[in-house]
Amino acid sequence: MRTLYLIGGPMGVGKTAVCRALQKRLEGSVFLDGDWCWDSHPFRVTEETKAMVLENICFLLNQFLRCSAYQHVIFCWVLQRQEIWDAVLSRLDMDDCRVRAVSLVCAPEVLSARVRGDIRAGRRDEAALERSLSYLPLYAALDTERLDVSRLTPKEAAARLEVGV
Q: Which of 10, 19, 72, 82 could join 132 in a cystine, given CB atoms 3.0 to 4.6 angstroms apart?
């Protein structure tokens, strides 16, 4: 049976780092970051681009789920609203597949420090901090497991995801 790991969380919480660490732990795994499916300049959020990115994500995830080379499919994206989770899941062929739906969260001061570090390093713009902090409380309302990564390294978080703690 395949496992589909759907990992959400606000910008800067460490989704990509945790998923990379998880990928290294799991033989026969593949990783997709939802941001890669609409990495454009300038970045535009419109109804058309939102529909396109969802279609891109679901196409790629279905390809991975159908490929016998992969037993573990790992996907991360901000996923701050239940309707986004539902839209992704409703389009996936999940025969013989279990789903781990997890939201990574952390203390607001930890998230602020992480995002500020990304801003200093040129990986995020100033507006990312306010957006990220505004998304943080939304994860409490989702039908997902929550993993607080405030005091965890990406490797430690990946180990907990793998064993389901």
A: 10
